[in-house]
Specification:
The protein is mainly β. It contains eight helices and 31 strands. It binds MU-OXO-diiron and calcium ion (3 copies).
């Protein structure tokens, strides 16, 4: 065994074998251990009681870490020699049927579920860089952002008729955030979080506004039934028609100021945002990439009007309020007849081509014929339809590498690709019935803000050992870890790509996991599995601090197909109680660290 370290990364490990989807364990490489950082229900403030399965309450949950942590970001606190950090996590949704004992009152189900949504900020501490982090109860930066928190709308939709309700006749202040999926850490230290499946929280009429295009068409009753108690979740009620228009944005939170007002930036459009990630362009403008996570939806790019100013945090925090919005069109360079709907390469040996960023908003005005600026931003999907953007296989995370400046886009899967009446396979979405997803590499060719780009497919996922049609940039397919349903992407300090997955059990039959992908050199396309999450869990929010040989993941919805009486997972405590979504940290085992001092990096 010779642990590898592509690009000179300090993080050396031997890939783990894939883990069967029935296994309720978190599996890490030989020589590493995992540690619980924080679990659902762990209190952030000492005025709340300790979590107790049998005595849950909304009051406890409001002062404790929420459910289904998805994105997380961990920033070291300056001047603490690496001993303290501030962590942000979002709480995408809830699984009431495994969280709450049978017999919990309907009112408690609603209130505890609502309090388990939202965002958390929590300070962490550790003895030194080789030790795991733990949360600091009552730390000054600790914060829970709940459904009664006021968010300020920024950008052209702030104050517009499309977002006014009877509770907010000015259309500027929204209560809460919903469906927060992935996110990004900005160069100025704030956090972006994507409001994704907001539609599932509302009743709505398909004939009103953009409701149909966004799936706000439920007239029967939502899964959580919040509309039974709070009228604003039934947008058919007079005065609440626009409530769903106030969700579906990129949210920005300043974790360093617990009194700051979180904001929703309407300039980045309204969609089922997976998240957003920023890179500063060559001319100083902030460039944000964001995907709309649904089958046949689009990839978007925002370019700020103003320029980033190093050190001027107050100014930088305004950058997402004003700028141009684009949507991507991908054009393949091989004949359409050569795209067979499998992972079989066309005759030029690559799935690749050129792309255009088509303007939706330019210089503060609508760039789409027949759409006002307000219409583009509240019904961004329809505007993108109108300009002929390329329908993609569910755009999840899209993140630029700060090492190479190339951008990586996870297309998680799309089983309807090529189905009757649906878009056929094309060079950027080359596999029909795309069960396992693919990853696209975008090169802005030296100008991040430009309106053209080059692209190629880095990998088409699957398990070659099971005969799946796959592609790994030419790396031998019998030497990769099988991978399915790429969701979140991240980078280590030397620019290796890390991919976490959501949906592998339904694809290749293994538990979801975290994978490192080599991007440069002869081993480009090599996929190595670093960890596997417990049964029915999704691997989210990877944070790779490879200089510390430390990796964090959010384990979301472990055991989600169970019930309270029939739990499918007991992670992370394995003490007979049900699962608790948890942020974990993986570190080399202390006292048993593999000695690789004789190995030269890379
Ligand atoms: Fe919440 Fe797009 O995954
Ligand atoms: Ca080609
Ligand atoms: Ca996701
Ligand atoms: Ca997903």
């Amino acid at each position: 065994l010779k642990p590898s370290a592509p690009g000179g990364s300090k993080l050396r490990f031997d890939a783990i074998a894939p883990v069967e989807h029935t296994v309720d364990e978190l599996t890490v490489p030989e020589g590493f251990d995992w540690h619980t950082v924080i679990r659902w229900g762990d209190r952030l403030f000492s005025d709340a009681p300790e979590f107790d399965w049998a005595k849950q309450s909304a009051e406890q949950q409001k002062r404790a870490f929420g459910y289904n942590n998805d994105y997380s970001a961990i920033q070291e606190q300056p001047g603490t020699a690496g001993k303290k950090a501030v962590m942000f996590a979002n709480h995408e949704y809830t699984n009431e049927q495994i969280m709450l004992p049978e017999g919990t009152s309907e009112d408690d189900v609603i209130e505890i579920g609502m309090a388990a949504h939202g965002l958390s900020v929590v300070e962490l501490e550790r003895k030194n860089r080789t030790c795991p982090y733990s949360p600091i109860v009552d730390a000054p930066l600790n914060r829970r952002i709940l459904l009664d928190e006021v968010f300020e709308l920024t950008g052209p939709l702030a104050g517009s008729d499309a977002v006014k309700t009877k509770e907010d006749p000015e259309g500027r202040r929204v209560l809460g955030t919903l469906g927060n999926c992935s996110g990004g850490l900005t160069p100025w230290g704030t956090i972006l979080s994507g409001e994704e499946n907001f539609h599932s929280y509302f009743l709505g009429s398909a004939s009103y506004g953009s409701n149909k295009r966004y799936g706000v068409t439920n007239t029967e009753g939502t899964a959580r039934g919040w509309e039974k108690k709070y009228d604003r979740f039934d947008s058919r009620i007079d005065g609440y028609e626009n409530e769903p228009n106030r969700f579906g944005y990129i949210v920005e939170v300043d974790p360093w100021d617990p009194t700051s007002t979180p904001r929703k930036h309407t300039s980045l459009g309204r969609l089922k945002h997976e998240g957003a990630n920023i890179i500063i362009g060559e001319d100083g403008r902030a460039v944000a990439y964001t995907g709309d996570d649904e089958a046949f939806e689009y990839l978007y790019k925002f370019v700020s009007a103003d320029r980033y100013c190093e050190g001027d945090r107050a100014h930088n925090m305004t950058l997402l309020e004003k700028g141009d919005l684009y949507v991507a069109r991908f054009t393949g360079n091989s004949p359409a007849a050569e795209i067979t709907g499998s992972a079989e390469l066309p005759s030029d040996g690559a799935f690749d081509g050129s792309g255009e960023w088509i303007a939706l908003v330019k210089d503060g005005e609508s760039a789409v014929e027949g759409f006002t600026l307000e219409e583009v931003l509240v019904n961004t999907r329809a505007a993108a339809d109108a300009v002929g953007a390329t329908k993609m296989d569910r755009p999840e995370d899209v993140e630029p590498s700060l090492v190479s400046r190339k951008v990586y886009m996870a297309c998680t899967k799309n089983s309807d690709r090529g189905a009757a009446g649906k878009a056929p396979a094309d060079e950027a979405n080359p596999r029909a019935k795309n069960r396992d997803g693919h990853v696209i590499e975008i090169d802005e060719l030296g100008d991040q803000a430009s309106q053209t780009f080059a692209w190629n497919i880095l990998l088409v996922a699957g398990d070659p050992a099971q005969g799946d049609p796959v592609y790994f940039s030419g790396f031998p397919v019998d030497k990769v870890s099988p991978i399915s349903c790429p969701d979140n992407v991240a980078f280590d300090s030397v620019g290796n790509l890390w991919i976490s997955t959501d949906g592998a059990p339904g694809g290749i039959g293994y538990n979801d996991g975290l994978f490192r992908v080599t991007l440069e050199g002869e081993e480009r396309g090599r996929v190595e599995q670093f960890l596997s999450v417990p049964r029915e869990g999704e691997t989210c929010g990877p944070v790779v601090h490879d200089r510390d040989e430390s990796v964090f993941v959010s384990v979301q919805h472990p055991g989600e197909d169970g019930t309270f009486a029939d739990q499918h997972s007991f992670f992370p405590d394995y003490n007979g109680t049900g699962p608790r979504p948890t942020v974990v940290q993986v570190l080399p085992r202390r006292g048993n660290r593999p000695d690789h001092a004789d190995q030269k990096p890379g």
